[in-house]
Write a structure and sequence with these properties.
The chain has 328 residues and is of the alpha/beta class. It is 45% helix and 10% strand. It has helices at residues 3-6, 23-32, 92-104, 114-120, 136-142, 168-181, 183-193, 212-227, 236-242, 247-258, 262-280, 285-291, 297-308, 312-319; strands spanning 12-16, 46-50, 56-57, 63-64, 78-81, 107-110, 128-129, 147-148, 154-157, 160-163. Helix 6 (168-181) packs antiparallel against helix 7 (183-193).
């Protein structure tokens, strides 16, 4: 038996490198997408650094040596561009290969100011896109055909994905994992990276910088409480009582620390719970609708399909974990 032939092909992600990129953003796809976070299982993706084989110099002066030339972008399932120096051309070779990859139908994504590279290639004309809030005005001035959203932490527009600055790139990486491999896989990697498992793309990207452990503690405690209450209607008063604070203070804290409202967070948690139940149980759709607190199966199907892009049944068929489901 040929074991290699029996091994499913992992989706490929090409990460193009050019001079002046930051090590932080280059490392994000390598850590979040290309690392084996689940013991005994291979990484979810085959991630390859592509660029000038003579080496590229990062913004700190460190040199990196790509594994493949830029031409390898043409064969990748996804091309993910890390942050580039804003306002400076990424060069004709990268522009050419980005266009070729897009024309071939590859998924295109950019982290932080990597959005400038996509804009230079003309891939964002007429599309919504985001970038680091500090550089959003420059992006809009340089590329007026792009609809720049300076607040979103990540966006998708017709198969092209962009993220806000710095750590928001991890949110986009988790979003891609969630789309490709499901909620459970994204949650596993988020726990290992010690980051929030799910932030909506349209949450504000510049939130108050409370110490991570403090912000994570109060939210995790509230999430634990909420997961035991999802079957019933949850009000702002319920949340504030569980958090031992006033509704006004809780709303301010969500806006300051999370960049969203308490009730939008509850809605996102209901969807996350439903995704996980679809992946890990054989519960009926009606039961999952009840367990996650959607009120009715009709409402659940409508909300889920609008948010996720496919029906609950199709989601289960795509992401259910064979042999590991909890039976009703």
């Amino acid at each position: 038996m040929n074991d290699q032939a029996d091994t499913p092909r992992r989706p490929s992600i090409a990460v193009p490198l050019v001079d002046g990129m930051t090590l932080f953003e280059i490392g994000m796809p390598l850590e979040a997408l290309g690392y084996d976070w689940d013991p005994g299982a291979p990484p979810l993706y085959e991630v390859t650094l592509c660029g000038d084989m003579r080496g590229v110099r990062t913004h700190t002066g460190a040199r990196l040596h790509p594994q493949r030339p830029l031409s390898a972008l043409s064969a990748a399932d996804t091309v993910l561009v890390p942050a580039v120096p804003p306002g400076r051309s990424v060069g004709a070779p990268l522009v050419r290969h980005l266009r070729a990859a897009a024309e071939r139908g590859a998924r295109i994504a950019a982290l932080c100011t990597g959005t400038f590279a996509l804009a230079e290639a003309g891939l964002l004309d007429g599309r919504r896109a985001t970038t680091h809030w500090r550089h959003a005005p420059l992006l809009q001035r340089m590329y007026p055909a792009v609809e720049v959203d300076a607040r979103a932490i990540y966006l998708e527009d017709n198969g092209i994905f962009t993220s806000a600055g710095s750590a928001a790139g991890l949110d986009l990486c988790l979003h891609l994992i969630r789309r490709d491999h499901g909620e459970r896989a994204a949650n596993t990697i988020a726990r290992n990276l010690v980051i929030a498992a799910h932030r909506d793309g349209d949450q504000a990207q510049y939130v108050h910088a409370e110490p991570l452990d403090e912000a994570a503690t109060w939210l995790d405690e509230l999430r634990t409480w909420l997961r035991g209450q999802l079957r019933r209607t949850i009000t702002l008063a319920d949340l504030s009582q569980a958090a031992n604070t006033s509704p006004r203070t809780l709303a301010r804290r969500f806006d300051r620390d999370i960049g969203t409202t308490p009730m939008r967070w509850v809605a996102a948690e209901r969807l996350a719970a439903a995704r996980e139940l679809l992946e890990t149980t054989d519960f009926t759709i009606d039961r999952i609708a009840a367990e996650a607190g959607f009120g009715s199966p009709v409402t659940f199907r409508s909300v889920f399909t609008q948010d996720v892009g496919i029906s609950p049944s199709r989601y289960r068929a795509k992401f259910a974990t064979a042999g590991q489901r909890i039976r009703s």
